[in-house]
Design goal:
Number of domains: 1
Order of helices and strands: HHHHHHHHHHH
Strand content: under 5%
Number of helices: 11
Structural class: mainly alpha
Shape: elongated
Length: 271
């Protein structure tokens, strides 16, 4: 006589039962709450950009304005907003490495939710973090002479530009963080980000750089985003810089997105 073991029906809902958008929003909210308790991320995202803007304006503000590129506070504010996005991604990448090494990614990977939501939620969190940091930076810039010359709607657009930029930068940083052997590998990106910091149209007008360097400065990813923020606040061309910023973002996501997804999956399934 044979006995059969009754099959117990799993209580876990199928992955497709949880909407991707809902999963992404919930995951983004959890990340933002976690980051708000991390002093390193708070400093990199809020304190460091505000301090940098003050130093740029106090030390270089009058010099840059005298070069004829417009009021320096607008270029510097756009520049520093993007720098906050750059270095903020480094801080969150280090937290991602910690989640990988402690097995937290592996535990979340087993949850009955769409796994694409983990990447989408992290990118959404990066965008929201950058948006909050940009609003704080704009508030700091107002006493320095920063104004929304084209109204609130354009000002909202100026906040959205660094958020879009942050998504493009976050994808390659996530790709590196998931495969990096340690935090030092991610921190080495800081050297590249410093180059972007000093060679862009916000630090000085493009015409002030050597002729052979001007095309590089003009077309590196930060410069069009800075010009878009300047156009939406002080005035100037808007459509062209916005299009180039979106093209850079789409290009970075298209190139590094598959690497980030593959690396995230491997990091989660390693433990």
């Amino acid at each position: 006589m044979t006995t059969t073991v009754p099959q117990t029906k799993s209580t876990w809902p199928p992955r497709r039962a949880v909407p991707l958008i809902r999963q992404s929003i919930i995951h983004a909210g959890a990340l933002l709450r976690s980051w708000s308790r991390d002093p390193g991320i708070v400093v990199q995202s809020l304190v460091f950009p505000a301090f940098m803007l003050l130093m740029f304006q106090l030390v270089l503000g009058k010099t840059v304005t005298s070069m004829g590129g417009g009021d320096s506070v607008y270029g510097n504010t756009g520049l520093v907003a993007l720098v906050g996005a750059l270095f903020g991604t480094l801080a969150t990448a280090i937290s991602l490495i910690h989640e990988r090494d402690t097995g937290l990614l592996a535990r979340m990977w087993t949850l009955p939710v769409p796994r694409a939501g983990f990447i989408a939620g992290r990118l959404l969190a990066e965008a929201v973090r950058t948006g909050i940091a940009t609003l704080v930076l704009f508030a700091v810039a107002v006493p320095l002479g920063f104004r929304f010359e084209h109204g609130i709607a354009a000002g909202i657009g100026a906040v959205l530009v660094p958020m879009v930029f942050a998504i493009g930068i976050a994808v390659p940083v996530i790709a590196m963080a998931t495969v990096a052997s340690g935090k030092q590998a991610v921190q080495q990106l800081g050297g590249l980000f410093l180059l972007l910091l000093f060679f862009n149209s916000g630090f000085a007008p493009v015409t002030e750089y050597p002729g052979w360097l001007q095309p590089v400065v003009e077309h590196q990813p930060m410069s069009p985003a800075i010009e878009a923020v300047r156009g939406l606040t002080e005035g100037g061309e808007i459509a062209g810089p916005l299009i180039v910023t979106v093209v850079w973002t789409v290009g970075l996501v298209a190139v590094f997105g598959p690497l980030a997804v593959r690396g995230y999956r491997n990091a989660a399934e390693r433990r």
